[in-house]
Amino acid sequence: MDNKTPISILSEEFSKLPGIGSKTAMRMAYFYVHHKHNIQPLINALEKVSSNLDKCVICNIITNKNSNPCQYCADEMRNKNLICIVENDTDVEHIEKSNSFKGVYHILGGLISPLSNISSNDIELLSLKKRLDGSTDNFEIIIATNFTTEGEATGLFIRQYLKDFNNIKFSRLASGLPFGSNLEYVDSYTIGKAIDRRIEYDS
Ligand SMILES: [Zn+2]
Fold first, then answer.
1. Averaging pLDDT over each range in 29-43, 89-103, 171-185, which range is the top one?
2. What is the arithmetic mean of pLDDT over 159-185?
3. Residue-range definition of the domain harbouring residue 193
4. Ligand 1 centre and the CA of 61: distance in Å?
């Protein structure tokens, strides 16, 4: 029989959030016990997310259920053969702010990280391959993962993973972004420059 307390059930849910450890999760749970008027707005917000939002069927970005494919994939003016690969949705927001990219995106939903037990099967690679399968068009894929060990390893893995496609040119964001950079903390001007001056991967 499950005899967990309501508090421990709630704090367990909070501890699933990125960056939230068990102590913080417990504090968050107690916050709601002490501030019950905040509970219903949270429930409403979660329900809206659950009923209105979905992943784009093409690029995995979060989009409204009634506009899927997303605004970028559905945009006729965007170059569908220029695909920028990023870790998550917030990276897309950053790149969009730079106003320097008119292609489409592919959201991986994570980076390969043996230390955190995240393997290539845990990120959106199969859906990337499906996008490219069967097309005879030429593509350019910009690897725009973070300049960290995980970001670099994931970029290299993607190149290997897609090596049988000879219609793909790979590039990486240019220098100006120091090693260790997390795109989230880089200003949009620098991101824009890094896209403009992207460099082709040696094959
Ligand atoms: Zn999309």
1. 29-43
2. 81
3. 58-200
4. 6
Query: Strand pairing partners for 122?
Result: none
Distance between Cα 47 and ligand 1 center (Å): 23
Q: How far is the CA of 56 from the centre of ligand 1 (A)?
A: 5
Identify the residue with better confidence: 86 or 115.
86
The pair of three-digit structure tokens given for residue 32, joined into one six-digit string? 């709601």
Q: Are residues 129 and 32 in the same domain?
A: no
Residues 64 and 11 in one domain: no
Give the C-alpha distances (Å, rounded to integers) separating 136 from 82, 86, 133, 142, 199.
14, 24, 9, 19, 23
Please give the average per-residue pLDDT across 63-76, as a whole number.
95
Cα 140 to ligand 1 centre (Å):
17
Closest by Cα among 179, 191, 200 to 90: 191
Position 98 scores a pLDDT of: 86
Residues within 5 Å of ion ligand 1, judged at the Cβ atom? 56, 58-59, 69-70, 73
pTM above 0.85, yes or no: no
Find the CATH number of the domain harbouring 35.
1.10.8.420
- Which residue, among 132, 123, 199, has the nearest Cα to 166 in the 3D structure? 132
Question: Cα of 110 to ligand 1 centre, how many Å?
Answer: 17
Number of residues that this document lists for the chain: 203
- Is the pLDDT at 177 greater than 70, yes or no? no
